[in-house]
Amino acid sequence: MDITLHKSQIVNRQSKITITGSKSESNRLLLLKALYPEFTLENISNSDDSNLMTQALISDSDIIDIHHAGTAMRFLTAFLSIQEGKEVIITGSQRMKERPIKILVDALNELGADISYTDNEGFPPLRIKGKKLTNNKVSLQANVSSQYISALLLIASRLENGLELTLEGDITSIPYIKMTLALLEEIGIETSFIENTINVKPNTQHPTPNTQNPTTLIVESDWSSASYYFSIVALCGVGTEITLSSYKENSLQGDSVLVDIYKHFGVVSTFNDNKITLRKETFNVQPLTLNLQNAPDIAQTIAVTCFGLGIACDLTGLHTLKIKETDRLVALKTEIEKLGGEVDITDESLHLSPSEKINKNIPIATYHDHRMAMAFAPLALKTNIIIEDANVVSKSYPTFWEDLESIGFKITK
Ligand SMILES: O=C(O)C1=C[C@@H](OP(=O)(O)O)[C@@H](O)[C@H](O)C1
Ligand SMILES: C=C(OP(=O)(O)O)C(=O)O
Predict the structure, then answer these.
(1) Residue whose CA is closest, atom 10 of ligand 1?
(2) Residues of the chain with pLDDT > 70: what percent?
(3) Cα separation values, 249 from 107, 155, 173, 246, Å
(4) Residue 215: which pLDDT band, with cuts at 50, 70 and 90?
(5) Which of 98, 155, 185, 337 has a C-alpha 20 to 30 A away from that of 388?
(6) What is the distance, to the nearest Å, from the Cα of residue 344 to the centroid of all Cα atoms in its chain?
(7) What per-residue confidence (pLDDT) applies to 210?
(8) 1-46 pLDDT, tens per residue?
(9) Same CATH fold assignment for domains 3-19+221-412 and 23-218
(10) What angle do helix axes 48-58 and 70-81 make, rounded to 10 degrees?
(11) pTM for the full model?
């Protein structure tokens, strides 16, 4: 379904939006709950990816199709490898079959797993014969995707001797690794991360480490989803406010760095009572230079904000973008250039030149990538824009379009 976003204004200058739980935290906690059922979860993400994760964890089918859900694919590969006596094929969308997984499969097999490729070496689908993993030390390349590392950490406490993981090379997306370790600690598992070595202590006895004190874990709302509101406020007039719930100042999510980044565009954030209010203030228009190695999922949002404001930007640390839902660097260049911008990309960077106009009524292709749809939507504050295959947002934020309508966006099918 393609939709048209007509040139819009935020109706209520003090709009409020509630966003559901972080997709990243949810997918970790769902897996941990499958290993340690005693704790309860609140504010789990309503995203397709988390629903797929939930279903896959209880599936007794011998084929699991995880569609476009990258974290679920990686985390389940580790989970299924320790389900003794079970044999499963895990597959996904056409794009998933192009997203590399060899680094994780090699590490699991070195630990003693039995995982093979049904089609192309290095890529899903995988045939996984669940068994007891007997080794406890492994090294892996850390500059391709942190999801491989989190996947290993999530099952580590269930291995006989725990896990000692040595990370080779530059470590990408570090906040996601720290999030995994923090959640393990929250349920009582001991971990350490010193220089390039991570240790997780075993916890093979039943039930959970925290049995005497069963825990309810409340998932903080999704900061990547919040990024689109930072962009909206940045593109609005001075005085516009949007309040988002439920957020905290000390987040486990690396994308909370938005608070600092968007000061550059005059967006001032105030925390109060688990809510964050974004307010547009006057600001000095200046080019933006930023390394996003720790927060790759907000690269599209930031590039489009800069384009909407006519500001130049130099974004680096983007090497993981080409293996996500689509090659996000190529997708950004193609779509911003349709709108009249000028973009240069390398394998890990994006340069946007300053611009003065935005072409009207341009159809934006989304390439099965939720973040393409959501990142371009705020431009409707400047001009009419068409978003192709708009349902793609359900991968992480199913009510995105309704929420935009509630604050004044005019949308027709
Ligand atoms: O662990 C996670 O929840 C994620 C890690 C990041 O992936 P990479 O480490 O591959 O950059 C991020 O882009 C993805 O959306 C979610
Ligand atoms: C990259 C993303 O997700 P995944 O890797 O889990 O498919 C994302 O949500 O931006």
Answers:
(1) 145
(2) 97
(3) 35, 29, 20, 10
(4) confident
(5) 98
(6) 24
(7) 59
(8) 999 999 999 977 778 999 999 999 999 999 999 999 989 999 999 9
(9) yes
(10) 20
(11) 0.97
Output the CA 123–ligand 2 centroid distance in Å.
16
Ligand 2 centroid to residue 134 C-alpha, Å:
31
Question: 369: CA distance to ligand 2 center in Å?
Answer: 9
Q: Determine whether the annotation assigns residue 371 to a binding site.
A: yes
Closest residue by Cα to atom 1, ligand 2, is 324
Q: Which of 192, 133, 195 is nearest to 167 (CA)?
A: 195
Q: Is 173 annotated as a binding residue?
A: yes
Torsion angle of the four alpha carbons 363, 365, 368, 374, in this order, in degrees rounded to the nearest 10 = -60
How far away, in angstroms, is 160 Cα from ligand 1 center?
A: 27
CATH architecture entry for 3-19+221-412 = Alpha-beta prism (3.65)
Q: Is the CB of 150 under 6 A from ligand 1?
A: yes
What does the pLDDT read at residue 14?
A: 75
Q: At 124, which amino acid appears? A: P
pLDDT of residue 27: 98
Please give all residues whose beta carbon lies within 6 A of any atom in ligand 2, as ranges: 49, 68-71, 297, 324-325, 371, 396
Domain 23-218: CATH superfamily is Enolpyruvate transferase domain (3.65.10.10)
Which ligand 1 atom lies nearest to the CA of residue 24? 3
Structural domain spans, the chain: 3-19+221-412, 23-218
What does the pLDDT look like over 375-393, one tens digit per residue? 999 999 999 999 999 999 9
Averaged pLDDT for residues 45-65: 98
Q: Does ipTM surpass 0.95 in this model?
A: yes
Residue 212 pLDDT > 70: no
Active-site annotation holds for 297: yes
Which ligand approaches the C-alpha of residue 68 most closely?
Answer: 2
- Residue 237: CB atoms within 10 A of its CB come to 11
In the set 222, 255, 297, 327, the catalytic residue is 297
